[in-house]
Design brief:
seven-stranded mixed β-sheet, 7 strands, 17% helix
Amino acid sequence: MRLTPELPRISVSVKATIVRDGAVLLLSYDDEAGFHYNLPGGKAQVGEDLRQAVRRKVAQETGLQVVARRLLCVAEYVPESWQNEFGDVQKVQFNFLAEQVDDAEPRMPEPPDPIQVGFEWVPLDRLADVYLLPRIKCLEKALTYVSADDVRDPISRAVGEVMGRT
């Protein structure tokens, strides 16, 4: 007899919001959901911290080198709330503002993702007009608070100081 309830299976993923000249980098896809955009990112691996996952996934998907800075927002997907539209696994997604550390241009991944059709720098004021999956309503609001002077939010800065990672 099990004394503790079984823990739910929850997928943890990261997304990177890379802003350049007032536009955000989006990956474009064409699959069973139709033509849509995604931010670069994906699932974190066991033992990998979230900022490491951002660096790894952005490099894999775009070839760009970035540093994850400010946590912009957290989005969650609970299958029952969405009638299992995106599968039956509960998900939590951490969306970071990421700073590009070089002046490289994005490139398609090797090997290519068969459903990815390209990249696009979408002006921030058009972000609400594109079909972005998953539907991250908190992202547009969070981007209004981005400061060029300090891209790290106070909580991330405090946690970094406590952990010795400033």
